[in-house]
Amino acid sequence: MDVPAPAPGQRVLGVTVPVPEPWGSRVRLVRAEAGDPLARTIGPHITILPPTLVDQEDLEAVEAHLDAVASRTLPFVVELDGVDGFRPVSPVVYLAVARGSEDLDALQRAVRDEEGPLARELRFRFHPHVTLAHDVAPEALDAAAASGEGITAGFVADRLELRALAEDGSWDLLRTVPLSGPVPGPDAAPALAAAGDDGPPRT
Q1: How much is the mean pLDDT over the chain?
Q2: What is the mean pLDDT of residues 73-78?
Q3: pTM strictly above 0.85
């Protein structure tokens, strides 16, 4: 993960959708067993805004912007199933998003709106995923991929997390922003209920 170096008066911010329990702990364990040091400093998540430099004085505007985006966004179902990777371009293996990609893409585009305080270009095309291991030896990536095959998750994405990079490399939670879009019509109800229909995680 490329993290920009902040100048005085700047902070490095990121916006994520967290992976809830019980799947969060399972992903963290896979990452730790692969020897990925970020397992201890970054909770399992789907990145909505990658590390981005923001002037400290703009933090209030950032929070207001995220409030506005969240107020227009309904909670939506995310399903994680299958393992893939970015090799050979980048030493990363991840859990793939099997459902919810379009909602996540719409959310990240709204967060990066060119008129807002988090406007920025992406280095790579947005590809939602949950990292299982990053920047470790090839055999560790292979082991993480094998372990990840046993993880299938389904949950409702109902909040954003605004985080700031700390000096020790961890990410401090600045604020949780609930997704609170207008109540959907009756046709949307089955989609929101679907995350609870599958019972416990399949292994």
Answers
A1: 89
A2: 97
A3: yes
**DSSP annotation string for 59-114:** HHHHHHHHHHHHHT---EEEEEEEEEE-TTTSSEEEEEEEE-HHHHHHHHHHHT-T
Residue tagged 């805004």 (tokens):
49
**Secondary structure (DSSP) of the chain:** ---PPPPTTEEEEEEEEEPPTTHHHHHHHHHHHTT-GGGGTS-SEEEEEEEEEEEGGGHHHHHHHHHHHHHT---EEEEEEEEEE-TTTSSEEEEEEEE-HHHHHHHHHHHT-TTSTT----SS----EEEEEESS-HHHHHHHHHHHTT-EEEEEE-EEEEEEE-TTS-EEEEEEEE--PPPP-GGGHHHHHGGGTT-SPP-
